[in-house]
Specification:
Number of strands: 20
Domain Flagellar basal-body/hook protein C-terminal: 223-267
Subcellular location: Bacterial flagellum basal body
Number of domains: 2
Mean pLDDT: 93
Structural class: alpha+beta
Radius of gyration: 26 Å
Keywords: Bacterial flagellum, Cell projection, Cilium, Flagellum
Order of helices and strands: HEEEEEEEEEEEEEEEEEEEEH
Largest sheet: 13 strands, antiparallel
Family: Belongs to the flagella basal body rod proteins family.
Distance between the termini: 26 Å
Helix content: 10-25%
Strand content: 25-35%
Organism: Novosphingobium fuchskuhlense
Shape: elongated
Length: 269
């Protein structure tokens, strides 16, 4: 039994090493959230077993938990680089599949059709009038007109703390085109990682609840900056050493069990 107990330990240490390695690999990935492994012990026994004689038979991976602590903020000077300074996720929708994705990476850009997007996924906003007052509660893709009603050409864009996106035109006029819609979840740890700092909702996370930036518990929007990974390399290196030692200890336990078995087999009467 000791072989299988230590084998479980080896597998668990390998899982821990894999998670830590992924964290370290994404130390420079904007909007990335680190993960940690939780383990649970395994007990062999039945309802009729004396509780004083219950035998542990190793451990198993209970969960790989995501840590949504905010990462460091890096100033970029680009007006379309956005940070949620607090709780909430940007909501984006794939222009190809229509899938809804949630992200903390606010590195948006304007495409040739005027949509704000990141990686092909369009930013979702609340509709507003030209002054920035919200006119609806259903998020939609934001599209900046190439010209205003007077025919003036688009000149630039700005995003305020409360999430209002304002387009500027060559004739000096400004027009609000939407307000960033922020999403929160009852259990963000249940979100499914999709890569590229994107998540999708699951039954564990619950459905998204939308709100306006800088109101209630929703964070404000900081323009001209990006949220970096929340990985602490010093902490990960310590975890890496610990996982390595656990792997070595379980391997040594297997070696010891092998020597004991060999000694028993070599016994002579």
């Amino acid at each position: 039994m000791s072989f299988y107990t230590s084998l479980n330990g080896l597998k668990n240490a390998q899982t821990d090493l894999g998670v830590i390695s992924n964290n370290i690999a994404n130390a420079e990935t904007n909007g990335f959230k680190k993960s940690t492994v939780s383990f649970a012990d395994i007990i062999a026994g039945s309802a009729f077993t004396n509780p004083k004689l219950l035998l542990g038979i190793g451990a198993t991976v209970e969960a790989i938990n995501q840590n949504f602590k905010q990462g460091a903020i890096e100033q970029t000077g680009n007006a379309l680089d956005l940070v949620v300074n607090g709780d909430g996720f940007f909501t984006t929708k794939s222009a190809v599949t229509g899938d809804t994705l949630y992200t903390r990476n606010g590195a948006f850009e304007i495409d040739d059709s005027g949509y704000l997007l990141r990686g092909g996924n369009r930013l979702q906003v609340f509709p507003t009038d030209t002054t920035g007052a919200v006119t609806g509660n259903t998020p939609q893709s934001v599209q900046i007109p190439a010209t205003n009603a007077a025919g003036a050409q688009f000149a630039g864009v700005a995003v305020s703390k409360n999430g209002v996106i304002t387009a500027s035109y060559a004739d000096g006029t400004n027009t609000a085109v939407g307000m960033v819609a922020l999403a929160t979840f009852l259990s963000p740890g249940g979100l499914r990682q999709e890569g590229s700092s994107n998540w999708t909702a699951t039954g564990l996370s619950g459905a998204a609840t939308y709100g306006q930036p800088d109101s209630g518990f929703y964070g404000g929007i900081l323009s001209g900056a990006l949220e970096r990974s929340n990985v602490d390399l010093s902490e990960e290196m310590v975890g890496l050493i610990t996982a390595q030692r656990n792997f070595q200890a379980n391997a040594k336990a297997i070696d010891t069990a092998t020597q004991i078995s060999q000694t028993i087999i070599n016994l002579r009467t």
